[in-house]
Design goal:
This protein is mainly β. The chain has no helices and six strands. The protein has a three-stranded antiparallel sheet with strand order 1-4-3, with no helix packed on it. The protein has a three-stranded antiparallel sheet with strand order 2-5-6, with no helix packed on it.
Length: about 110
């Protein structure tokens, strides 16, 4: 789970006193195993999103729709790429090519000889 912060104060210059009323978040793509929103908190002019999961090498569109106390709305779409945070160790008994690259199944898992 990672957290991201969005500061909307620059968008409210000249509208002193306006505050965040509601925040609505949508994430695309949105299939099982994709990025998910775990929590959202608005504090002053800052919005904090906690997200988890996601498919490696997929860039997600995270759309933040903010409704202000004045009734105005702000919408921003953030691009959030998901990268692997670690590389799994390759077992010693995997099949490999002449270039020593492991042979993998359709999910990227090494195929072993046992």
């Amino acid at each position: 789970m990672l957290d991201y912060q969005l500061d909307i104060e620059p968008a409210l210059v000249g509208n002193d006193g306006d505050t965040i009323n509601t925040v609505d978040i949508t994430i695309n793509p949105s299939q099982p195993g994709d990025l998910s929103l775990d929590n959202t908190v608005a504090d002053g002019y800052k919005i904090v999103l906690w997200v988890s999961g996601g498919q490696t090498n997929v860039t997600y569109n995270v759309t933040v729709l903010v409704t202000l106390a004045s009734g105005r709305t702000l919408q921003r779409t953030l691009l959030l790429p998901v990268i692997a945070m670690s590389v799994p160790a390759i077992p010693v008994n995997v099949l490999d090519t002449s270039m020593m690259d492991p042979i993998t199944d359709e999910n990227g898992n090494p195929i072993s000889t046992c």
